[in-house]
Write a structure and sequence with these properties.
Layout: E1 5-8, E2 11-18, H1 29-34, E3 38-43, H2 62-75, E4 81-86, H3 88-99, E5 104-110, H4 119-138, H5 141-148, H6 159-169, H7 174-183, H8 193-197, E6 202-208, H9 212-224, E7 228-233, H10 240-243, H11 245-256
Parallel strand pairs: 2-3, 2-4, 4-5, 5-6, 6-7
Antiparallel strand pairs: 1-3
Length: 258
């Protein structure tokens, strides 16, 4: 599987960016433009943007995603990087970092779940994601997106922001989205909190104070991982880099020492 990526030439250790479910490398362009002089590589995850291949993923597709990212880094001659992932992209970034730590200089997670520890919770999440995958495959995409962005995690979006988000997602392939959702369900993911605590690379978790679920996850992960720095952004919800671009870029510049 070959992933499409948008590269911004620059200096320093490259920053590799992984978007969330329904997104694409395009989502990161405003942020990359603010990181003047920084070498950035924004990747389209399988089934998103200009990357296909989600329908070739196994029931648990994390290792295939990790391999595809590794091959993308090699294609762009990147041996080590700062790895930033948002939501689904954060979960995949965490999986990649724990399996290929030699390729990671630092890890930045934006509202990403480290994984569920309970088998019953995993089963419930797989069923939840299968339900959404069926809707994506069978119903008009605009109607499914309207329902998707009504979920509590997107509660901080204004109506106009929600509508802009829906319109920006309509170019996606529903069949590819359904396949990716099932293969990278939180219910398929290992609980990686303990594995992260064993890593030597620096890790930063950025959460929004209005996103209570992920604020709680960040605090719990901080207690588990001594190498993790937690930064909480005031008045921010789930998608901080989009809704609070200036603040997010300032935090990232500090982390990257730009």
């Amino acid at each position: 599987m070959q992933l499409h990526a948008r590269e911004f030439p620059g200096n320093g250790t490259p920053l590799v960016l992984l978007h969330g479910f329904l997104g694409s490398a395009q989502d990161w362009l405003p942020l990359c433009h603010r990181l003047t002089g920084q070498h950035c590589l924004a990747i389209d995850l399988p089934g998103h943007g200009l990357s296909l291949g989600a329908d070739t993923l196994k029931a648990n597709g994390f290792e295939q995603c990790n391999q595809a990212i590794l091959e993308t880094l090699r294609r762009h001659q990147i041996e080590r990087c700062h790895l930033l992932g948002y939501s689904l992209g954060g979960r995949i970034a965490l999986s990649f970092a724990c399996h290929y730590p030699q390729a990671v200089h630092s890890l930045i997670l934006e509202n990403a779940h480290p994984g569920l520890g309970c088998d019953q919770q995993k089963q419930q999440r797989r069923e939840h994601d299968r339900h959404w995958a069926t809707r994506f495959a069978d119903e008009p995409l605009s109607e499914v997106l309207e329902s998707w962005y009504q979920q509590p995690v997107f509660g901080s979006l204004t109506q106009s922001a929600r509508q802009r988000m829906i319109e920006s997602r309509l170019a996606n392939s529903p069949r590819q989205l359904a396949a990716m959702l099932k293969s990278t369900s939180l219910g398929q993911q290992d609980d990686l909190g303990a594995a992260l605590s064993q890593q030597s690379f620096a890790c930063c978790y950025i959460s929004g104070q209005l996103d209570v679920k992920f604020e709680t996850i960040a605090r719990e992960l901080k207690q588990q991982c001594q190498n993790l720095k937690h930064i909480s952004i005031e008045n921010a919800g789930h998608n901080i880099h989009s809704q609070h671009l200036r603040t997010f870029s300032r935090v990232l510049c500090d982390w990257l020492q730009l």
